[in-house]
Amino acid sequence: QSVLTQPPSVSGAPGQRVTISCTGSSSNIGAGSDVHWYQQLPGTAPKLLIYGNSNRPSGVPDRFSGSKSGTSASLAISGLQAEDEADYYCQSYDSSLSGSVFGGGTKLTVL
Amino acid sequence: EVQLVESGGGLVQPGGSLRLSCAASGFTFSSYAMSWVRQAPGKGLEWVSTITGSGGSAYYADSVKGRFTISRDNSKNTLYLQMNSLRAEDTAVYYCAKPNSGYNYGAFSGWGQGTLVTVSS
Description:
The complex is a heterodimer. Chain A is mainly beta. Chain A is built from no helices and 9 strands.
């Protein structure tokens, strides 16, 4: 059971917009800790997609966006492309555990 | 360009020990906290441990506390993870990770390719 809760899977057709939620608690997201998002393609290391809730590293398309409110955060992907099919993870800091915590991951399927 | 190269993984019996290494290049190693993150086969990411840039402080997940020790040699730009009393549930790909800022728990912008640790008799 992960500290941050994500839906196991989401899907969408090419060109559509999908969102992935990440629900935490008062000891992590709700305490003001930043949320970061990663994309992991099969057999590869994770890649940073969004940092500090809503910031994109250089090279990440603006189709990817992040937001945070209360004890939850969301990753939105617009204009879905086949290459977006991957696993997505959220991450934050938990003050009660004194360490980083990840969501369980969400598998995105592009129909 | 940030490069992180892990090594030291392999097959070990339950109760055994293993030491992982992560050779870093392309950035001022001593200026950044470094972390280990693992991923069991077919499972999600799990934070394992973080060490500050100076090596003066270390933090661990409850699942490895008392069994794993993180350390670093800033003169060699190398991060280590000493794993003792290994269990089957420690089987995973272990990644070393670098944050994108000086904050100990910043987003991980740099990742190694991972090294597989298999605990089995």
